[in-house]
Amino acid sequence: MMDQAGPKPTRLLHHEDTGLLAFEATVTAVRPLEHGCEIALDRTAFYTESGGQPADHGVLAGRPVLGLRHEGCVVWHAVTEGGLVPGDVVTGFIDAARRRDHMQQHTGQHILSQAFVREGARNTRGFHLGAEESTIDLDGDKPPSDLCESVATAANDCVLSDRLIRIHEVPREELDRYPLRRDPGAEHEILRLIEIEGWDWSACGGTHAQRTGEVGAIHLLGVEKVRGLWRVRFLAGGRTLRYLSRAHRVLDDTARAHSLRWDGLAEAARAWTAEIAELTREVRRLRAERGEKEAERLFLATKPGSGGVRLLGIWLEDFSDGGRGPLRGDAGPDELRALASRFVASGTAVVLAGCSEGEREVWVAARSAAWTEAAGPPPHAGEWLREWLATRGGKGGGTETFAQGGAPRAMPTRSGSASPGPAPPGSASRDSSTPGLAAPRSDGPGEDAGIFLQKRMSKGLGAAD
Ligand SMILES: [Zn+2]
Q: Which of 44, 107, 307, 431 has its CA 20 to 30 A from that of 446?
């Protein structure tokens, strides 16, 4: 057991030599954990999470190190098994790839923060070293893209000039002799200063490279506003190489698929976007036109009922493109609206028409604005639609003459004679319509809508008597 004063302070070997990846130390205290134990050492090369940099991984006395914790000046190492006692001499090995990666990101941060000061007078207020990318938080206005470019150039120049990085232990009262980038606060009597020769001075307890060349390329990923500061996302070293290689592979594959060079992709994408917008407008216009033509055909094919009123319940679906490209899917709402409007404009009529749009059903209800007296009181399209959609778990509304709404998509129904999948051209389900136009269904939601109109119409007329 430890004495009342606790174990002696742990000497931090990584503060003296960040290249030290194996060390020997003496166990000064051991305390049990639920699983395994926590060990204090007289000295350690393991870095404990601090100042935005995560802890090292590695092995101590043959056991994986599960966690590291500072308690005052003592570093506690959590390991899997017990069996160690004070006085044991143990060996520690630091996970070299992880340490090297963290040194690249962390030293990259010092270089980058100084570049933002030099190029744009922006101060770093925070730093985070993440598993995928790292960030610094800057004060001031949003750094414009040309500033980010000049910062990236300056930072990479600093890397390529392979400057020496020195560590200095300096008493607090001598701090004003050094051109520190940032006030270190009043926490310690002796401060550890990191000097990047001819570039940057800052107080920091993290692990850093010994020369800037070890940092490798620094790459800025983007800027976003977080809690009033400008967060710059960046990569350094091996992460930059892996990222750029992956990004280039994606660009190159995409470009090849379109028989383009990768640097022509952005221009091509702009052209595609404009073309798609143009095609979409054209498709909507054609759908509306198709809906109007279909309305004219259906009007002639529908026999007038009581009072000379034509009732049409219809479900539009299954056009010829099979769900691909800008023409994808079934008849769109544009077509539905055009069909309903044209149908009721042709004489005294009521329409209840639906189609699918993604996972939803779209429904419109319309009745002729010029309603003949002989047909009785005119129906209210908005109210009828609300009633209809209530039966399908949906909602909608509108005026007396036109209303629109939606409902969750019911399971699609297929006529018994249709084969599974899209119906081939000229199949039974299309026989009643002109090729390429909406086929009135003999089953499913269209028929249900027709029955609803019939019932509602007789109820409405009955109430008026
Ligand atoms: Zn640092």
A: 307
**Global pTM value:** 0.69
Centroid of ligand 1 to alpha carbon of 393 (angstroms)? 60
Question: Which architecture does CATH list for 273-464?
Answer: Roll (3.10)
Give the distance (Å) from ligand 1 centre to CA of residue 152. 19
9: CA distance to ligand 1 center in Å? Answer: 22
Q: How far is the CA of 329 from the centre of ligand 1 (A)?
A: 56
- CATH classification code of 99-257: 3.30.980.10
Run of H or E residues at 201: strand 200-203
- Ranges of CATH 3.30.980.10 domains, the chain: 99-257
Q: How confident is the model at residue 368 (pLDDT cuts 50, 70, 90)?
A: very high
Distance 235 CA to ligand 1 centre (A): 15
202-241 tens-digit pLDDT: 999 889 999 999 999 999 999 999 999 999 999 999 999 9
What are the C-alpha distances in Å from 130 to residues 101, 274, 310, 352, 381? 11, 38, 67, 56, 58
CA 108 to ligand 1 centroid distance, Å: 9
Q: Are 315 and 446 contacting, i.e. CB atoms less than 8 angstroms apart? A: yes
Which of 188-192, 254-258, 328-332 comes out lowest in average pLDDT? 328-332
| CATH code assigned to 11-94 | 2.40.30.130
Provide, for the chain, the percentages of residues in helix, strand and coil under a 3-state DSSP scheme, each rounded to the nearest 5. 35, 30, 35
Domain with CATH 2.40.30.130 in the chain: 11-94
52 C-alpha to ligand 1 centroid (Å) = 9
Residues 6+ apart with CB under 8 A from 44: 10, 11, 12, 13, 14, 23, 25, 75, 77, 92
